[in-house]
Amino acid sequence: MERVRGILAALAIAETMDGFMREAAPGWRVHRLSRGRRHEWSVSVSGN
């Protein structure tokens, strides 16, 4: 649950997605979705 809180906190303080992506941990695997959902992003959370 702590990982999710960390990601949500990082998203809350990010001014842009570019800024969030620069600060995101590699394990979060932040990426833009494709095709009709290009305005949406995915963040993966692994572990407990």
Topology summary:
Layout: H1 2-13, H2 17-23, E1 31-32, E2 41-42
Antiparallel strand pairs: 1-2
Can you characterise this structure?
- It is a single chain.
- The protein starts with a helix and ends in a 6-residue tail after the last strand.
- It has one domain.
- It contains two helices and two strands, in the order ααββ.
- 40% of the residues lie in helices and 8% in strands.
- Strands 1-2 form a two-stranded antiparallel ribbon.
- It is mainly alpha-helical and 48 residues long.
- The mean pLDDT is 87.
Question: Which key features would you list for this structure?
Answer:
two-stranded antiparallel ribbon, 8% strand, globular, mainly alpha, 2 helices, 2 strands, 48 residues, 40% helix, single chain
Explain briefly what this protein structure is:
The chain has 48 residues and is mostly helical. It has helices at 2-13, 17-23, and strands at 31-32, 41-42. Strands 1-2 form a two-stranded antiparallel sheet.
Number of domains: 1
What would the average pLDDT be, to the nearest integer? 87
What's the number of extended β-strand segments? 2
Distance between the termini: 7 Å
SS strand fraction: 5-15%
Percent helix: 25-40%
Low confidence ranges: none
